[in-house]
Design goal:
- The complex is a heterodimer of chains A (155) and B (596).
- Chain A has two domains: 60 residues, no CATH class; 82 residues, 3-Layer(aba) Sandwich (Glutaredoxin), CATH 3.40.30.10.
- Chain A is 50% helix and 12% strand.
- Chain A contains seven helices and four strands, in the order ααααβααβββα.
- Chain A has a four-stranded mixed beta sheet with strand order 2-1-3-4, covered by helices on one side.
- The longest helix of chain A has 14 residues.
- Chain B has four domains: 75 residues, Ubiquitin-like (UB roll); 84 residues, Alpha-Beta Plaits (2-Layer Sandwich); 133 residues, Rossmann fold; 203 residues, 3-Layer(aba) Sandwich (Fe-only Hydrogenase (Larger Subunit), Chain L, domain 3), CATH 3.40.950.
- In chain B, strands 2-1-5-3-4 form a five-stranded mixed beta sheet, with helices on both faces. Chain B has a four-stranded parallel beta sheet with strand order 12-11-14-15, sandwiched between helices.
- In chain B, strand 17, helix 15 and strand 18 form a beta-alpha-beta unit.
- The two termini of chain B are 45 Å apart.
- Classes of the chains: A alpha+beta (155), B alpha/beta (596).
- At the A-B interface, helix 3 and helix 4 of A face strand 8 of B.
């Protein structure tokens, strides 16, 4: 696990080794690895001289700090009321058909993970989804096909 | 003098120190407010909401455990709104609680159950959510069972593990209705940094964290005619057992306990105190040997400061947290394990019993002792040295099951051999006790005189301060100890693993010049152990400590090296302290464990 060790050390050098540093370090791991493995958490606990259960507690508290392996692109479709009323169900179905996975699953090539999320704050432009940090709004079936097609081809 | 504030509770005026809570103020008036997440050893959590009260001029109900008493406050603890709210809190907790009370180990000792009883719940109105929850039960540890279906998420255990013990094996994971008390990656307790100290068990208000009990196994052994069942009792059991059997806190019940054990049917009722005295002989000699090697032989491989090794919670803690200091730990086994190793060798020989047929039981104030007995290092007799470890609480259960009226039992004396004890051994049960006992013997060994403290009471190492330092100047020594002439022996005592961590950190940072460190994993030492009667609070620990020191003062022999059975065992069996036989049976080494 030398890469994880290096990554965590680098993040700790950057953000510090206090309790407040925990969250930015975990976010840093997410942006590199897409999820926080138990090895990564162990390393964070060691680097910050902190209990591993505490690191685990923090990681499991936040929905965007995944503790299970994720694909290169994590798609999170907003499931909250406004997006739901504006047709989120159809968007999810389209995504499931395109990616051939159910919500919660990752494609075989490890490129995409399809998830739902709570309100993204785009209620006025629903339905909305995130692909990693990028927001896509006012989605339609066509628009979704286009976006995913682009990711499949070009990224 | 702290400022006082005046407030009114249920129409009665009351003054309390500034900083006290509304709950404290109500207590002062003998007004009972129910609590669940509150515990006197721990910081305020305010998460269970069962202690809510009404405050005049405030719209929402306030949690009395978290609300500081303020000047002019008007509080109502018994209104319709308050009673309804409390009832709903309990109903909601019960809707997620596996209420199989009659089968539960904590039946009649559960704080949630007694609240439900007090409120006369009947058929509660919320849907039973238990069938839909994916609760897990972790039974893999030899010491502690963690049953999430009983957990009310009050987080007493989490605060205990963090604040008192600095271990944080338990934390809070997930959120909302998925929130749970969890170890790292929800691994079993035995596979994480848990020290098995059981302080969480002592604080859990329900049956979510309990000791793994071995009561039935012990009964089976007693009923088995082919087995010779010996029992040893730890120093701190005799001053706390009474609490579970109708006595007031601080009552010493040594004689009644011995009678009870004999009537239960143990073949021989012996005392861990005997091996506590033996520990002093071995550990004291070890310390003096290390000092000699360091001071006279200038041997740099000798590790100082030396730490005690009696507390199995401390041993597991250092294995995980400061493995580079394992060589500093005394190689002495704990008194329990010394006893175990001797029961199936020395005792078996003396009594002419095949050790294969001996079942060795120990009564301990401790849950970590259950883990210790199962260690692979603890089989030097050729068998598992200690077969079953019962907590003080489990012994109380056995006494009740045996139909004994403990209050009226006559006193009896321990059997021989390995039943003799001294005051020095008894004080092992209190923080500072091992240090005091060691000093009483080591000082006399080196100088030929008693320790220079009135009535042998080394008060400098006593008390409940988390870390206590004391120095003893060694003067006019006997010729063979001349290298110690004028040496100031520096010692430190710590109890609770949070304090242990402070002491070890100071050693690591090179900020300490101690020679000898006593560490007990539990606050107050063994008298506040995880296996002691529930509740354990600062006030209760204080009373138990007073009882321990009273027991010490009441004994005719108060120095370990004067224990006649100890002298006998060296003559007949062991030879001398740190001798060949001792090394074989009474000493061991521990090993590094992973950091999580």
């Amino acid at each position: 696990m030398p890469e994880i060790k290096e990554l965590v050390k680098g993040l700790a050098d950057k953000h510090g080794r206090t309790r407040e540093s925990l969250l930015p370090i975990l976010q840093g791991i997410i942006s590199e690895e897409r999820f926080i493995s138990d090895a990564a958490m162990t390393e964070v606990a060691r680097e910050l001289d902190m209990s591993a259960a505490l690191v685990y507690g923090t990681a499991t508290f936040y929905s965007f700090l995944d503790t299970k392996p994720r694909g290169k692109y994590v798609i999170r479709v907003c499931r909250t009321i406004t997006c739901d009323m504006k047709g989120k169900k159809q968007i999810v179905k389209t995504l499931e058909d395109l990616l051939k996975v159910n919500v919660g699953e990752t494609t075989k090539d490890n490129k995409f993970t399809l998830l739902e999320t709570n309100c993204l704050g785009w209620c006025h432009k629903g339905p909305a989804m995130l692909i990693n940090d990028e927001a896509y709004t006012e989605l339609t079936e066509e628009k979704v096909s286009e976006i995913i097609g682009d990711y499949m081809k070009n990224k | 003098m702290a400022n006082t504030v005046n407030l009114k509770i249920d129409g009665i005026d009351v003054s309390v120190e500034e900083g006290k809570t509304v709950l404290d103020a109500a207590k002062k008036l003998n007004i009972h407010i129910p609590t669940l997440c509150h515990h006197e050893d721990l910081c305020v959590a305010g998460n269970c909401r069962v202690c809510v009260v009404e405050q005049e001029g405030v719209k929402n109900l306030v949690a009395s455990c978290a609300m500081p008493a303020q000047e002019g406050m008007v509080i109502q603890t018994n209104t319709h709104k308050v009673r309804n709210a409390r009832r709903h809190v309990v109903e909601l907790l019960l809707s997620e609680h596996n209420a199989d009370c009659t089968k539960c180990y904590k039946n009649t000792k559960c704080e949630l159950q007694s609240l439900a009883n007090e409120m006369v719940m009947g058929d509660h109105m919320f849907i039973d959510l238990v069938p839909d929850k994916n609760y897990t039960v972790d039974m893999m540890s030899p010491s502690i069972i963690k049953d999430d279906s009983k957990c009310i998420r009050c987080q007493r255990c989490v605060r205990t593990c963090t604040e008192l013990q600095h271990v944080s094996a338990l934390g809070v994971a997930y959120k909302g209705d998925h929130m749970k008390i969890s170890t790292f990656f929800e691994n079993p307790m035995y596979d994480v940094v848990c020290t098995n100290c059981g302080q969480c068990v002592n604080r859990c208000p329900t049956g979510a964290l309990i000791e793994k009990n071995y009561v039935d196994e012990v009964w089976d052994a007693i009923y088995d005619e082919n087995k010779h069942v010996v029992v040893q009792t730890a120093p701190a059991v005799r001053i706390a057992l009474g609490e579970d059997l109708g006595f007031d806190v601080g009552e010493r019940v040594t004689g009644k306990m011995v009678t009870a054990l004999k009537r239960i049917g143990f073949d021989s009722v012996l005392d861990t105190d005997f091996t506590a005295d033996l520990t002093i002989m071995e550990e004291g000699t070890e310390l003096l040997t290390r000092l000699k090697k360091a001071l006279v032989d200038k041997d740099t491989s000798v590790k100082l400061p030396m730490t005690t090794s009696c507390s199995p919670g401390w041993i597991k803690f250092i294995e995980h947290t400061f493995p580079e200091y394992l060589e500093n730990v005394s190689t002495c086994k704990s008194p329990q394990q010394m006893f175990g190793a001797l029961a199936k060798t020395y005792y078996a020989q003396k009594r002419n019993i095949n050790p294969e047929n001996i079942v060795s039981v120990s009564i301990m104030p401790c849950t970590a002792k259950k883990f210790e007995a199962n260690r692979p290092e603890m089989r030097d007799s050729g068998y598992q040295d200690v077969d079953y470890v019962l907590t003080t609480r489990e012994l109380a259960i056995m006494i009740k099951q045996a139909g004994l009226d403990f209050l009226t039992l006559p006193d009896d004396k321990y059997d021989s051999i390995m039943g003799d004890s001294t005051g020095a051994a008894v004080i092992f049960g209190a923080t500072g006790g091992v240090m005091e006992a060691a000093l009483r013997t080591a000082y006399e060994l080196v100088t030929g005189r008693e320790v220079p403290f009135e009535n042998l009471n080394i008060t400098a190492v006593r008390g409940m301060e988390g870390v206590r330092e004391a120095a003893v100047k060694i003067e006019n020594v006997l010729p063979e100890w001349s290298f110690l002439e004028g040496v100031e022996l520096k010692t430190v005592v710590a109890h609770g693993l949070t304090n242990a961590k402070k002491v070890m950190q100071a050693v690591k940072d090179g900020k300490a010049d101690w020679h000898f460190i006593e560490i007990m994993a539990c606050p107050g030492g063994c008298l506040g152990g995880g296996g002691q009667p529930i509740p354990t609070t600062p006030e209760i620990r204080q009373k138990r400590a007073e009882a321990i020191y009273a027991e010490d003062e009441g004994l005719p022999i108060r120095k370990s090296h004067e224990n006649p059975e100890v002298q006998q065992i060296y003559k007949d069996f062991l030879g001398e302290p740190l001798g060949h036989k001792s090394h074989e049976l009474l000493h061991t080494h521990y090993h590094e464990r992973k950091r999580v």
